[in-house]
Design goal:
The structure holds two protein chains of two kinds. By secondary structure, chain A is mainly alpha-helical. In chain A, 75% of the residues lie in helices and 1% in strands. Chain A has a two-stranded antiparallel sheet with strand order 1-2. In chain A, helix 11 runs antiparallel to helix 14. Chain A is globular, with a radius of gyration of 27 Å. In chain B, strand 3 and strand 4 form a beta hairpin. By secondary structure, chain B is an alpha+beta fold. The chains are: A mainly alpha, B alpha+beta. Chains A and B meet through helix 1, helix 2, helix 5, helix 6 and helix 7 of A and helix 2, helix 4, helix 5, helix 6 and helix 10 of B.
C-alpha cells in the first residue's frame, strides 16, 4: 500500500518534470508567436478578418507553387524540348519527338535485327521498354503477394491472441527502416557467403546465385519490398477489420453461420472499401519502385531489375537526356493519374454498396 | 488420473470467454511466430553480424552468434596462442595451442602440460584440425567504421534536416490548414483543390524541373534544398484541415469577441486543439525525412552535406568489400528510429491506422 503511494507520487513528480521540460522547449516558440502578434495585429486591421485567410495560406502556397506546381508545369516543357542543357532557354522545341523515340523500339547496342521495329526481341533490348516491362511484372506480383499477405496477417492479428500489440509492432517495424538500410540488410543475407547459402550448403545443397541470376534477382526484389512495406498495409486493414461491428458476427453465429460463411458474407464485403484503399496505395507505390532496388541490385544483373524511376533518374542525371527523362515522367504521371482516378471511382462505388 | 490430466490440459488451453484453443488458434500462433522470425530475423542477423570480427565475417557456413578463435596465454610465449582441436591419424583428439606455422609444418603445445616438449606436426598427416571458437562481440567494426565513415557528420545533417523540416512542415501546413478551413475569401476552394490534386504526385515524377528550380534558387548543395521543397506536403495540409473542420466555430467567435487576433486564435486555440493530428503529422514527417533517399541524392553532391542514407549508399558503393564497416554503420543508422519506435510504438501504430496515409 505504502509502496504504491510512493511510486505514484514519484510518477507524478516525473510528469511534472516532463511538463516543465515541455514548457521550456516551447518557450522560444511562444515568445516568437507573441512577437509576431505585434506585426500581425495591424495586418489584420488592414486586411479585415476574413482575408487574413490569405496570410495563413501564403507560406505553404509559396513553397507549394515554387517547388511542386511550377516543376509540374515545367515538366511538360522539358518533355517537348530537346538538348543536353537543363536550362530552359537553351532547349529546342521538338514536339512529340521525345515520346516517339521513347516508344519506338531501339536496341541499346548494335544488333542486326534492329532494322525491324516490329521485332519484339529488339524492344527487349530497349531500356525504356525493358524498364516498363520489368515495372509491370514487379507491380503485379508485388502488389498481389503483399496485399494477400497483409490481409492474412491482419486477420490473424484481429483474432483474440495474446501479445497482439507485440506482434503488431513486429510486423510494422520494417516499415520504419529506410530503403537503404533495408537493401543493405538483404544484400548481406543474400550475398554468396550469406546465411541462406550457408543453410543450403549445411543441408548438402548447392549455393544459389540469389542476386546474380536475373530471375532470382527479380524474385528477391519483390520479396524484399513486400517485407519492407507489408506492415503498413496490415495496419490499415486491421483498422478496417476492427471497425466492423461485433454484433454482426454474433447475429450470424446465432443464425448458424460458420466461420467461413461469416468471413465471406460479413468480413469481405465490409472490408472492401479498406481493401480498395490498400490496393491503390500499394499500386501507386509499386509503380514508383526505386530506392531499395537501386541499392540492392542497381538495376542488375544487366537490366533485369531496371524500373521506371531508375530509368528516369539515370536518363536525366547520368546521360543528361533531360527531354527523354521528362517524357518518361509524363508517362509515369499519366499512369499514376489513372490509378488515382481509379481509386476515386472505386471508392465511390464501394461507399454506395 | 486421466480425468485430472484432462483437467490440466483444459486449464492450460483455456481462454477468457471460456472457449478452448482450437485448430485455428494454433495456426494463428504458428503464423504469427513465423512472422516474427521473418520480419525481425533479418534485423537480428544484421546486428549479430555487425559484431563479428573482420576475420570471422565470412566464415562459411556462418554462425549466428559472433565468434572468434579462442586463445590461451602460456608462460614463455609473449603472444596469446590460438587454440585448435587436433584429430590425429589414429583417431584421438587433443586440444592444442599453436606456437608457429611454417608452410604445412605446425608447432603445437599442450596447454594442460606446459612443461612437455612442443609437438612438430605436419598438417597433411592429421585427420582434422579445427579452430576452437568462443562467442565474442567485437566492437572494432564500430570504432573503425566511425573513423573511415564520417558517421557523425552525416548524423548531424540528417538530424538537422529532419528536425528543421518537421518544424517548418508543422508550421506552414497548420497555418494553411487554418486558412483553408476557417475563413471565407475568394479563391479558397480553388487553392484547396489544386493542392489536393497533387496529393498523389511523387517527387520522382517532377525530378528534372524540381532540380532546375533548386539550381536557380541556388540551393543545390545546401540543406535548405532538401528541407524546403517537401515541407508544403499536401498530405499534411489535408490531414490537418480535415481535423480543424471538426473544431466548432463558436469557440473562435467567442475568442474574437474577446478581442483576440486571428494569429492569437491560431496559436493559442487552434494549435492546442489540433495536437493529435499534429502528432501524427510529426511522426510521418520524421519518418519521411529520416528515410528520404532520392531527393537528397540529387540535391547534395558534396559529401560533407550527405545525409545518413545517401552517405551509407555511397559508402557501400565505393567500398564494396568493406562489409564489416557497412554492417556496423547500418546498425547505427537504424538505431535512432528503432529507439523512437520502441518508445512510441503505440502512438505510431494507432496514428497510422487511423489516418491511413503515408
Amino acid at each position: 500500500m505504502r509502496t504504491t503511494r510512493v511510486s505514484k507520487r514519484r510518477g507524478g513528480k516525473r510528469k511534472l518534470v516532463m511538463a516543465w521540460i515541455g514548457r521550456l522547449l516551447l518557450k522560444p516558440f511562444v515568445v516568437l508567436a507573441t512577437l509576431a502578434d505585434v506585426v500581425l495585429g495591424p495586418l489584420q486591421k488592414l486586411l479585415g478578418m476574413q482575408r487574413m485567410g490569405y496570410f495563413f495560406v501564403l507560406p505553404n502556397l509559396l513553397v507549394f507553387g515554387i517547388f511542386i506546381l511550377l516543376p509540374m508545369l515545367l515538366n511538360f516543357y522539358y518533355g517537348f524540348t530537346a538538348g543536353d542543357s537543363i536550362l530552359p532557354e537553351n532547349r529546342q522545341f521538338v514536339g512529340l519527338a521525345n515520346l516517339e523515340s521513347l516508344f519506338s523500339c531501339q536496341p541499346t547496342f548494335l544488333d542486326p535485327r534492329s532494322e525491324s521495329f516490329m521485332n519484339p526481341s529488339v524492344c527487349q533490348q530497349d531500356r525504356f521498354w525493358r524498364a516498363a516491362g520489368n515495372t509491370l511484372t514487379f507491380v503485379i506480383f508485388q502488389v498481389g503477394v503483399m496485399v494477400l499477405l497483409a490481409l492474412v496477417t491482419a486477420l490473424a492479428l484481429n483474432r483474440e491472441v495474446r501479445g497482439r500489440g507485440f506482434f503488431r509492432s513486429i510486423f510494422f517495424y520494417p516499415v520504419l527502416l529506410s530503403p537503404v538500410v533495408v537493401a543493405l540488410i538483404w544484400k548481406w543475407i543474400l550475398q554468396p557467403e550469406g546465411v541462406f547459402n550457408g543453410i543450403l550448403v549445411g543441408m548438402g545443397l548447392e549455393r544459389l546465385p540469389f542476386l546474380v541470376e536475373a530471375n532470382w534477382a527479380r524474385l528477391w526484389v519483390i520479396v524484399v519490398s513486400v517485407w519492407a512495406q507489408m506492415g503498413f498495409h496490415t495496419l490499415i486493414l486491421l483498422a478496417g477489420l476492427q471497425s466492423i461491428p461485433h454484433e454482426l458476427y454474433e447475429a450470424a453465429s446465432m443464425d448458424g453461420a460458420g466461420a467461413w460463411r461469416s468471413f465471406r458474407q460479413i468480413t469481405l464485403p465490409l472490408l472492401m472499401p479498406t481493401m480498395v484503399v490498400v490496393l491503390v496505395l500499394s499500386l501507386i507505390r509499386a509503380v514508383q519502385v526505386f530506392d531499395q532496388v537501386f541499392v540492392l541490385t542497381t538495376g542488375g544483373p544487366g537490366t533485369a531489375t531496371l524500373y521506371m524511376v531508375q530509368y528516369i533518374f539515370q536518363t536525366a542525371f547520368d546521360r543528361q537526356q533531360f527531354g527523354l527523362a521528362a517524357a518518361t515522367s509524363l508517362v509515369l504521371a499519366a499512369v499514376l493519374f489513372v490509378l488515382t482516378l481509379g481509386q476515386l471511382r472505386l471508392g465511390r462505388t464501394s461507399e454506395i454498396a | 488420473m486421466a480425468d485430472e490430466k484432462r483437467g490440466v490440459v483444459a486449464f492450460l488451453t483455456r481462454k477468457h470467454g471460456g472457449r478452448r484453443i482450437d485448430l485455428a488458434d494454433v495456426l494463428t500462433y504458428l503464423y504469427l511466430l513465423a512472422g516474427v522470425v521473418v520480419m525481425f530475423g533479418p534485423v537480428v542477423w544484421l546486428v549479430m553480424s555487425s559484431f563479428k570480427a573482420q576475420s570471422n565475417l565470412f566464415d562459411f557456413p556462418p554462425s549466428f552468434l559472433p565468434q572468434k578463435q579462442d586463445t590461451v596465454v602460456m608462460e614463455g610465449y609473449e603472444q596469446p596462442l590460438p587454440l585448435y582441436d587436433i584429430t590425429f591419424a589414429d583417431g584421438t583428439t587433443r586440444r592444442l595451442a599453436q606456437v608457429r606455422r611454417v608452410g604445412l609444418q605446425v608447432t603445437m603445445v599442450d596447454p594442460a602440460q606446459p612443461e612437455a616438449e612442443p609437438l612438430e606436426l605436419n598438417i597433411r598427416e592429421l585427420a582434422g584440425r579445427r579452430e576452437v571458437k568462443r562467442v565474442f562481440f567485437d566492437l572494432s567494426n564500430y570504432s573503425g567504421g566511425v573513423q573511415s565513415f564520417p558517421f557523425f557528420t552525416y548524423l548531424r545533417n540528417s538530424v538537422v534536416i529532419t528536425v528543421v523540416a518537421t518544424l517548418v512542415t508543422l508550421l506552414i501546413n497548420s497555418m494553411a490548414a487554418y486558412g483553408l478551413s476557417k475563413f471565407h475569401y475568394r479563391g479558397r476552394d480553388t487553392i484547396f483543390l489544386i493542392m489536393i490534386s497533387t496529393l498523389m504526385v511523387p517527387i520522382s515524377v517532377i525530378l528534372i524541373p524540381a532540380f532546375l528550380v533548386i539550381t536557380k534558387v541556388g540551393w543545390n548543395n545546401s540543406l535548405w534544398g532538401v528541407i524546403i521543397p517537401g515541407a508544403a506536403t499536401p498530405t499534411g495540409v489535408f490531414l490537418l484541415r480535415q481535423y480543424m473542420l471538426t473544431i466548432p466555430d463558436e469557440l473562435l467567435e467567442s475568442a474574437r469577441i474577446d478581442g483576440a487576433t486571428e494569429w492569437r486564435i491560431y496559436w493559442q486555440i487552434i494549435l492546442p486543439l489540433t495536437s493529435p493530428a499534429l502528432a501524427v503529422l510529426t511522426i510521418f514527417s520524421v519518418m519521411w525525412r529520416w528515410n528520404d533517399f532520392l531527393w537528397p541524392l540529387i540535391v547534395l553532391n558534396r559529401s560533407e552535406l550527405f545525409t545518413l542514407q545517401v552517405g551509407l549508399n555511397a559508402f557501400q558503393g565505393a567500398l564494396n568489400v568493406q562489409w564489416h564497416y557497412i554492417l556496423a554503420m547500418t546498425v547505427l543508422t537504424l538505431l535512432p528510429i528503432t529507439v523512437v519506435f520502441a518508445l512510441l510504438q503505440r502512438y505510431i501504430t494507432t496514428g497510422i491506422a487511423t489516418t491511413g496515409m503515408k
